[in-house]
Amino acid sequence: MLKPITVRPFALLLPTALGCLLTLGFTLTLGFTLTLGFTPNAAIGQEPFDFAHKILPVLKKHCAECHTGDQKKGGLSLNSRESMLAGGESGAEVLSNDKSMSELLSRVSTKDPDLRMPPEGPGLSESQIADVAQWVQAGLPWEQGFSFGAQSYDPPLLPRRPELPAPSSPDRTHPIDRILDADRAARSLAPLRSIKDEAFVRRVYLDLIGLLPTPEQTEEFLADPSADKRPKLIRSLLNKDLEYTEHWLTFWNDQLRNDYSGTGFITGGRTQISKWLYEALIHNKPYDAMTRELIAPASGESAGFANGIRWRGEVSAGQTVEIQFAQSLGQTFLGINLKCASCHDSFIDRWTLKDAYGLAAVYSNTPLQIHRCDKPIGQTASPNWLFEELGNIDAQAPQPERLKQLAGLMTHPQNGRFSRTIVNRFWHRMMGHGIVHPTDAMQTQPWNEDLLDHLAVDFVDQGYNLKELLFTIASSEAYRAESERLEEKESSVAYAYQGPRARRMTAEQFVDTLWQLTGAAPSKFDAPIVRGKSIGLDAGNPKPTDPIGAWIWSDTVQSPSGPPAGEKIALKQSFTLDKLPSQAFGVITCDNEYRLWINERLIAEDKNWESLESFDAISALRVGQNVVLVEATNGGSGPNPAALYFEMKLIDPQGTVSIASSDRWTYSTSALDAQGKLADGISDWKKAVVANGPWAGRLQNEIAMGLARGPLDGPMVRASLIKADPLMRSLGRPNRDQIVSMRPTELTTLEAMDLSNGQTLADWLAHGADLWNARRASLNADAQTIRETPTREAPTRELIDRIYMHALSRHPRTEELQTIDEMIGPTLERTELEDILWSVVMLPEFQYVR
Amino acid sequence: MMHPFEVDPSAPRSHARRDFLKQLSIAATATLGLSSPRLVHALSDGTQILHPKAKADAVIVLWMGGGMGAPDTFDPKHYEPFEVGKPVAQVISTFPSIPTAVDNIRISEGLENVAKVMDRATLIRSHVQPDLGSILHSRHQYHWHTGYVPPQTVACPHIGAWVAKVLGPNNPVIPPFINIGQRLEGVGEQEELKAFTTAGFFGSEYAPMNLPFPEEAALSVRPPKGMELARFQNRHRFYRKLADSHPQRDSMSDFHRDSMIRSMEGAYRLLESKEREAFDITLEPKESYEKYDTGRFGRGCLLARRLVEAGARYVEVTTEYVPFLHWDTHADGHTTLRRMKSEIDRPIAQLILDLESRGLLDRTLVVLASEFSRDMIMEGQPGSNAADQAEKVDKMTEMKHYGLHRHFTAGSSVVMWGGGVKKGFLYGKTAPERPCIAVENPIGVTDLHATLLTALGVSPKTVFDVERRPFYVTEDGKGQARMELFGS
Lengths: 850, 488
What we know:
The structure holds 2 protein chains of 2 kinds. Chain A is α+β, with helices and mostly antiparallel strands. Chain A has a 6-stranded antiparallel β-sheet, with no helix packed on it. In chain A, strands 9-6-11-12 form a 4-stranded antiparallel β-sheet, covered by helices on one side. The two termini of chain A are 36 Å apart. Chain B has one domain: Alkaline Phosphatase, subunit A, CATH 3.40.720.10. In chain B, helix 6 (190-196) links the parallel strand 6 (177-180) and strand 7. Chain B has an 8-stranded mixed β-sheet, sandwiched between helices. Helices cover 28% and strands 14% of the residues of chain B. Mean pLDDT of chain B is 89; it is low at 1-34. Classes of the chains: A alpha+beta, B alpha/beta.
């Protein structure tokens, strides 16, 4: 079985390649025994009658001119099998019962020049006639969905407010349901069934905030008797600003190709928009405002998207940042693919080379030479917007003004393409399939224009409010419908709504949920942001007070070349407390490395001066003398700037005291030991020196916000804040060198290998086993109801139940409990707990949002 | 002549009928909303893409990451020994040349073992790269490995992913694309390396299996650390049982569910299969192991041989690109190259001999290449405005000045063995004096790829429909195989 298998025996057994095998729905067992592992692609074998290669070329060459598209010579159209079978003026005898009498066959094979088809030219060869005969014999098989007839669809630009059909019943008044119910009724399709509450709660948590509901959250929802508990839950999830932001960050980072590491950063050819994006999401900035700030950035914070990626060296005409600008804007905001048109007039849609360059020229600071396929055509591009109907750009205006005008045109209320594109993307995320699909091809006809148009105008009515859009979708009965049963990956049958399509967890969702289940989340993250909602930016809140600390270092900052590389110092400040404050928290960072101790307890450490650490110090403080001690190290390979910033607030009802770095601190060049202690008798303390550098300018705002936010309540670090690691990359987190609108929907064999034997996951599971084991110990056997087979200890039963409730939002079934009973020995071992956790998170039920 | 629509029986035929139709009528099928790349079987003028008859079933790329200077390896020129005060301009090669098994081919000192197998090789001395301005290694490496110069608007697949996608595995339980020796974390330019070490738009099914440390490769196909095989098997058994006890399992087939379980099953089969022993180089007989054991690269060659024997399709082994290390000599090049050559010389020769003695060399193409060459003086190529990146000295005063410290893109060497290429054959040449540009049969990445693909039976015009536009395996489908390299 496991000797090298050629694909041939397999191909002989089954007529087509593996992909087709699956789409035909053969049983899995057969697949397993014959071909497991990496998809063999070169299967060669017998196929059913090959219409595509044997007949289609003949039709195309000999018949198409007169009998396809708008042409129906003699009344015969060969556009589709149906039109062909309908026949023409000579009768409908294309396929008669007596197959030798087919009119079609006789017309192509006759020697009579008056009757023969085609009338001109040498006609069909003997072998082609034989093929046609075989085709007739086989019953004229046709390719499903194929037609010669051109289906041209011209997507509208302006918004349209469709009239909503009457509700199908009094409890289905949501506009989405009115539209979809009417559609289903028109197709005589039965109404879809709704999912149970436990499935709903899991679905809506994962879709809106990317996390599993805890068993308690699920039970609370199940126990809620109120009729409006679903909209209430949706609203409360959308109000979880931090969780919402850190889930949707994944979508937006993909969409705006933003990341914390990636190509281009190494040579300064790319900047992040992380901080801006995080703030935009956490404050639910309207989408039109977001877009304007991305196209015409008011500050460097949101400029990274428009500026694109520049690698070191020279690039060809189709890869310049100006062209990237045009492509990115087209794709992200309008679902327009300008990649073809960046090189030559597109063969597949209306966009031309001039359109792409026109958009690029809006951004360009210098006259932009138009290149066709990398060769200049001797023309300069003029700044131009894609849809003149909405207005255009003043080509003479300076670049910042042009960008502003472009931002205005893009977000023009009459730009229905803009609103349709984003509502479609959100529908796709929530429902697993776009109304227009794929979501980057907005020129495609939607499967329901009313639905798309209604959502788009409603979105604009609501002030481009992304959370409201999510609320609208999630609160529909359509969203609550049972998941669609998909029997094959890509059906050639036109899409019809059959309930949300199962959504595979993104890599980040999978990692987050694993961290939820195992407690293995890291304590640090890479995104250069301060988590949570800053107080300062909300209207109505007072501005945070300005930081009062200074950036300090040793006296080497006064030497002409600056602090030497590798200089290591200890910085110290003491203070006395009469009583403990109610809160004590602060922020710290250091160029380049530091370790912070308060009263000999390690509080924080970091090596990146651009990331600010927040800390909670309350448990380290004591009445009497307190000591803040920082070991600080300069990096680099030669002398370079170095400094420390520290500021801590001690708050109690009487007021606030700040302890901040200043020239009143002292420093010593003596080294600290690993416990953060200085050797006794150090006497070289000197006054710290205030240093000048770029730090304050870069971080002042962040320090103020960090201090305004207060102590962290410790929300779990989310995968969206971490640089892509090998596991996330394996699970489909993309290199964000390109804009990504859709993640992979299936688990591949290589991914499955990482999940089966990867050390990262194994470590998390070991962590998780400890966590659940501790929980088991704390469960009180007497208080638990014992479900089903009572042969096991109640705490173990209860533990399994909790695992299922957390992972799948449901109780395990008897059958599943029996399987687990078989799996575990007389006592539940830690390794068995690991294996149970692994088995549960590998279930398709776990990894797909249904 | 074949009719344009006749099908070459050796052509990949998966999904052929449907893809073919879709290509013929993109407009008609636009509403189907197909989002994944689709193999296209005909060019826009209706010409059927014919795949050549395969000469090789597998390929091993020996990647000399960092820019292997041809004058000090496979294209020796005028040699000058080190001497304090000697003008740099006098030196082209820093090693003398040595004879090989082929009369008209001399290569550089330090490659004595490789010299003995040059009678099985085709040596190309005229590989050229485009001038991309200031040199960034990873940008040229991206180009060499994908056929396209970055940045690109779609995520370009590595050539290994193309091979995996179009040809599939030789053995269904061995991943078709395996990448040995390159760390992707903790090294300079790691993000740029990741950008092309990927299957791009083909998706992760065709992504490389990365094995940065050959001696640890076995771990990647073993159950996790601390898990006995019995427990691993048990775990899988229970998992399948749990998965099968899903409440709705009988009611209807479900694509996502079935596909996921199938992948889990596939991974499990490899992880408990006999073939996984191929990954464990410690199972190699001691005598043979020692022949390869010159370092990570040497052990990587051994691993590559074992994997190809077991059915791997595309294997790449690298000396590893780390900025300023290994072949990337910005200083002290001569000394560094002495070490590099001693690391690669024995294992490469042994790999060729082993493949030959196992009867695999005829059907395995081995390609040794690098992103560009080096020169002592010239950065980039004549006419380039690439900025100099190494210390400039007119006369050598210290040993560290002795070496090829600049990146040179106008003439590098590629060696091919097996897979139907000519034996003891020399192709192309570079100028004898600086600048040592290719002066005969220059061959760029596009044609080199076309040649490699042709050996494997893949048309250089192979094209996928990506985002509704054609994306070719060689740039714009223009790759022309140099057929004169094939033959006996």
